[in-house]
Amino acid sequence: MGNTFYITNPTNEDLNNFINLYIERYILILLARCKVFYEGRAKSQLEEGDRLIIIKPDGTFLIHKDKKREPVNWQPPGSKIFWSIERDCLILNSIRRKPREELKVVISRVYHACAFKCEDYEELNLTGSESEMAEMIFKNPNLIEEGFIPISREYQIPTGIIDILGKDKDNRWVILELKRRRADLQAISQLKRYVEYFKNKYGEYRVRGILVAPSLTIGAEKLLKEENLEFKKLNPPKGGKRNLNHNVKSKKTAVLDEWL
Amino acid sequence: MGNTFYITNPTNEDLNNFINLYIERYILILLARCKVFYEGRAKSQLEEGDRLIIIKPDGTFLIHKDKKREPVNWQPPGSKIFWSIERDCLILNSIRRKPREELKVVISRVYHACAFKCEDYEELNLTGSESEMAEMIFKNPNLIEEGFIPISREYQIPTGIIDILGKDKDNRWVILELKRRRADLQAISQLKRYVEYFKNKYGEYRVRGILVAPSLTIGAEKLLKEENLEFKKLNPPKGGKRNLNHNVKSKKTAVLDEWL
DNA sequence: GAATTGATATCGCGT
DNA sequence: ACGCGATGTCAATTC
Asked: Going from the N-terminus, what domains does chain B have, and what CATH number goes with each?
C-alpha cells in the first residue's frame, strides 16, 4: 500500500525533494538534531538536541522531546510552513498569522524521515463530559432535589453563562454550576458571580446557587459555606454501550467483546 | 549513527521483536491502522482509521490524527505499557495508576515503525511569562504607580494565592493579580476573591485590588468597574539576549544571527 | 498526596 | 473575528 514513504540519513537535496513531494498532503515525521526558536505571544529558544518533529497536513507543527506529554514547541492548525537550505542546515519556518507567531527550526542532521497518508474518517466518541451531566439532569431533575425544575441551559448573563437555570419547589431561582470533576475555588467564584447578578435582579432571598460535582476541594468547601452556596454531589454519567453511542455519527463497529 | 531503526510492513512477529528491542529506551513511532478505547476519568472509543502512535521512554503515549494540535487519545508520563498479539492484531495497553486509566489500541496494520534514541540535554528557555512580569514589577514598582511598594510574592490566603501583595503611598493594602495575556471574567473574580478576604480583615477602605495585564475582555472591563477594582495596562517582558539568558543553565550556543 | 494556578494553554461554540 | 468557558486539560509549586 503506497501510503507511507521514508528516507534514512538523507542529503539536504534528498530532504528538499522529500518535503516538496509530501508536505501539506501527508503527515511528515522527522527524527532530527535541531535547534528551535520561537517568538510570538512569548519567546523561547532551545539549543541543539535530538527531537521528533511532526508536520500535519492542516499546518499543525509539533516538536517533541523524549519526555512529557506536551510538545516543547509547536504551531497550531492553519500555520503556514516555509523551508530552505542554509549553511548546510535545513531550516523549517512555521508562521501563524493571528496572533503573529514564528517558529524556526534549524536542523543540522536528519536521521530518518517518514511521510504518512492518513486515511481517517472516524471521530472520537467521548462520554462522561459536563454536557452529558446536563442532559442527565434535564431528563431527571430530581437528581438535584425534589421539585427542582430546570428551565434553561447555557443561559447567558453579562457576567458569563449559567450552566443550568431553574426553579425550586418554592419558586426560587436556582442556578446550577456543573463540574465533571472535583470542584475548586474557581468553580465557587464562578457560581458566586452568577448568583450575585441574579440576587441584584430578583432579591437576596429569591435566589439559590448549587454547585453540582463529584466532590469539592477543602478550600472550595469552606468558601461555598461562607457564601451560603450549596453543594450537590453528582458524578458525570459514563454511559455503557447505549450512552457511548449517544453522539455517534457512524455505528459501523461494535465495541470489542473484551472491552465490556 | 545507530540511533534510529525502522521496519516497514512488518509481520506481527517482526513487530513483537521490534517493540521488545526498543521500548522504554527509544521513542517508538508507529504509522498504523487502529481502533482506540479509553476508560478512566472519562470514557471514549475511536473506530478504525490511520493514526500516528508515539510511545516515549518515560511512558508518555500519544495517538495523533492527521489534524489538530492535540492527540486524540493519550496517557501521561509514568504510564506502564503492555502488548500482545491477539486475533492477528497487535494490542497495546497503556495503564496509569492514579487515577486508574486504561488506553487500549487495537492495531490491525502497521505500515511503518521507527525507534529513535533521543540524545537531548537541553531545556527550553522561555521568556514572557507571568513570573517574569512579577520580577519586573519588583525591580521597578513604579510601573504600577508612583509610591507602590511590593511586599510579598505568591502570598497565600485561605481563598487562594495572591500574585503580588503590596502597599500604596497612602499605606493601603494593594493586591495585584497578574495576567500575561488579555484578562477575562475569571481573572476579575479571582482578584475579587482576594480583595474580599483582605477587606474583611482590614476594612473596606484599607484595601485596593489592581488587575495587571496587557488588556481586558469587554465583560471583564465592565465587572471590574462594578466591583471598584482597578486596571493597570502592562505587557510581560520578552527579554532580548540578556533577559533570554535569565534562566539559562547552559549558554553554549549564541542566538542565531538571523534571529535578532 | 492534595490544592492551587499558570500556560505560547487548545478547542469549540456562540454573537 | 471576538468573547467566553470546557478540557480525560498538563505541569509546576507549595504545603
From this structure: 4-116 (2.70.180.20), 130-233 (3.40.1350.10)
